[in-house]
Write a structure and sequence with these properties.
Blueprint lengths: L8 H21 L1 H12 L12 E5 L5 H11 L4 H11 L6 E5 L6 E3 L4 E4 L1 H14 L10 H24 L8 H16 L3 H16 L7 H5 L5 H15 L5 H6 L5 H22 L7
Helix pairs in contact: 1-2, 3-5, 5-6, 6-7, 6-8, 7-8, 7-10, 8-10, 10-12
């Protein structure tokens, strides 16, 4: 059963009922036990006995051939199982995280129930965007499956950032989406093997997404996220900060040779490192 079902009246009633049941259970048996029981209902085909730090994954049944192919990709080599295994080995969570692949809406993190959603249509959109605007991209698109999986992993890391914010009660001084963008970029570049490659794919996804915006409306500026083009530049700036000796091509092609911008990126990354490292000490699983 999909957790998200659009804006229908029945959907809203279902979500309200689930939250009511959860609140009642919390009063009787406590927050953690209540969350597990609610997840047992939502993830009816999944073993929901989980320890802190576990990722519980449910794959929704594909509805057409395209979704079948996407599910095969997401379950294959370097797909969701490998991503989840890696994230479990790297980051220490206080509570389990539930990942719903094939949800109706998302990508999204629902803080109340610790659920991350990745719709099939989001995976399809990655291919569609690069197919439509690939000429604007700076990366080799000969292996689109690899690019798609890079973007999915970056997305999972972003949603994990929301989980960390909630579970560790990190301070929030401005928009959470921007904070989580910075955190996920830092985790990717500081702690993930081949993280820079993944970051470039994610940056280019933001870049091609921006191509759909020929004009801007008010809600483009007051939305939760920064503009896609800003997110792309922020990822590239983080790469420059993390790898200043290997980023001349980014400074030349993205920042048009602006050495002052490169210097700002390096300084900013050092400030990010100084801010996050103490907070991440209980989170990072070190060898």
């Amino acid at each position: 059963m999909a957790l998200y079902c659009g804006f229908s009246t029945a959907c809203k009633k279902l979500k309200k009922l689930i939250r009511t049941i959860q609140r009642l259970l919390q009063q009787v048996i406590g927050t953690t036990a209540a969350a597990v029981l609610v997840m047992a209902a939502l993830f009816s085909n999944t073993d929901v006995h989980a320890d802190a730090g576990d990722w519980i994954v449910k794959y929704e049944t594909p509805e057409n051939d395209e979704e079948e192919a996407l599910l095969e990709l997401l379950q294959g080599e370097y797909g969701i199982p490998d991503m989840v295994s890696y994230l479990e080995s790297q980051y220490r969570l206080k509570k389990p995280v539930y990942l719903q692949v094939g949800a109706d809406e998302g990508p999204h993190y629902e803080v109340d129930n610790e659920i991350i959603t990745i719709p099939y249509h989001y995976a399809a959109e990655i291919y569609e965007r690069f197919d439509k605007y690939g000429d604007e991209s700076r990366i080799d698109m000969s292996d689109m499956d690899e690019i798609a999986l890079d973007v999915i992993f970056h997305t999972l890391l972003h949603e994990l950032g929301h989980a960390l914010m909630a579970q560790y009660n990190y301070p929030l001084f401005f928009e959470e989406e921007d904070v989580v963008d910075a955190l996920s970029n830092y985790l990717l570049l500081e702690y993930t093997e081949f993280g820079a490659q993944v970051a470039v794919s994610a940056a280019e996804m933001f870049w091609v997404e921006q191509e759909d915006l020929s004009t801007y409306e008010a809600d483009d500026f007051w939305g939760e996220h920064s503009l896609e083009i800003q997110r792309a530049y922020d990822v590239y700036c983080a790469i420059v900060g993390a790898y200043p000796d290997d980023s001349d091509h980014i400074v030349d092609s993205i920042f048009e040779g602006d050495e002052d911008k490169a210097y700002d990126c390096i300084e900013n990354y050092e400030r990010i490192r100084a801010a996050w490292e103490p907070l991440l000490e209980p989170v990072i699983i070190r060898d």
